[in-house]
Write a structure and sequence with these properties.
This protein has eleven helices and seven strands. It has 269 residues and is of the alpha/beta class. The chain has two domains: 185 residues, Vaccinia Virus protein VP39 (Rossmann fold, 3-Layer(aba) Sandwich), CATH 3.40.50; 64 residues, no CATH class. The protein has a seven-stranded mixed β-sheet with strand order 3-2-1-4-5-7-6, with helices on both faces. α2 crosses α3, α3 runs parallel beside α4 and α9 packs across α10. The protein is globular and about 55 Å long. It starts with a helix and ends in a 10-residue tail after the last strand.
Length: 269
């Protein structure tokens, strides 16, 4: 194993341990409805009208995608996540097959899914580009990939690098207890206000869910930012065509919808 391989494996383990500890359970009904009505992923899900279609949700967390698919389409979903504890949390939703898997080496066969969704995930992996190639590998000819990454041109880039750096420094000094006392109450209040405005619904977020969301936003071991052009270029390398770009999640995420031509082969590697 080379030094670089060792560093990648160490980062992968740290990311797994992070989400084992702070399971991403941001799956309230208001959030599900907003994703169905206003997001690119919701549109792609609603278009799945053929029984037997398969959706792969890579980095599934609480299995929000599977819940939407089950409610609104005849398709099946396979749910992949690096964190075993997150999948155990998701079991309560009866979401279908749950697979522990690494985004950079997905345990899925090539060209197995009609719709691949990866929402806010690959920027937490050691190599976003390599992770994108895996998403493309499992997409069938004629299929659709919806991928969201942190937007390099968005406001969150500055929040992560400046206020976020102070939060991470405070955590090193005072631990989670210090964050709960000094920072987290303000974060939870801000989330309540912003989500209520964004979803146009009265929004209540349980304390533990908000706490895990806080750590997803500020203390993850790896956080990368990408532009639309960068991700579209990865798609072109994999034989995919970008058909839609959209800034989502209050302009935190850059979301692209890409398709693989029905008469194409599948690029591997």
């Amino acid at each position: 194993m080379t030094g670089n391989d060792s560093a990648v494996d160490a980062l992968r383990r740290r990311t797994r341990d992070h989400y084992d500890r702070y399971q991403f359970g941001f799956d309230q009904e208001e959030i599900l409805q907003e994703k169905l009505e206003n997001r690119v992923m919701g549109e792609a899900i609603r278009e799945l009208a053929v029984a037997g279609s398969r959706v792969a949700d890579v980095g599934c967390g609480a299995c929000r995608v599977a819940r939407l698919v089950r409610r609104h389409t005849p398709a099946d979903t396979i749910n992949v996540d690096l964190s075993l504890q997150s999948l155990r949390y998701a079991q309560r939703h009866d979401a279908g097959p749950l697979v522990v898997g690494d985004n950079m080496r997905l345990p899925l066969r090539t060209a197995c899914a009609d719709l691949v969704i990866s929402n806010g995930v690959i920027h937490h992996t050691p190599d976003s580009r390599a992770s994108f190639r895996e998403l493309a590998r499992i997409l069938k000819p004629g299929g659709t990939l919806v991928v969201s990454v942190y937007d390099r041109e968005g406001w969150y880039y500055w929040v992560w690098h400046y206020p976020g750096a102070l939060i991470r420094a405070l955590r090193r000094l005072a631990g989670d207890r210090g964050l709960r006392l000094c920072v987290f109450p303000f974060f939870r209040l801000a989330v309540f206000v912003l989500l209520s405005i964004h979803t146009r619904r009265w929004f209540s977020l349980p304390a533990e869910t908000a706490w895990n969301l806080f750590h997803d936003q500020f203390t993850t071991p790896q956080c990368a930012f990408h532009s639309f052009d960068e991700v579209e270029g990865w798609g072109a390398e994999a034989g995919l065509r970008c058909v839609e770009r959209r800034r989502e999640a209050a302009r935190q995420l850059a979301t692209l919808r890409l398709t693989r031509p029905a008469d194409s082969g599948v690029a591997i590697g």
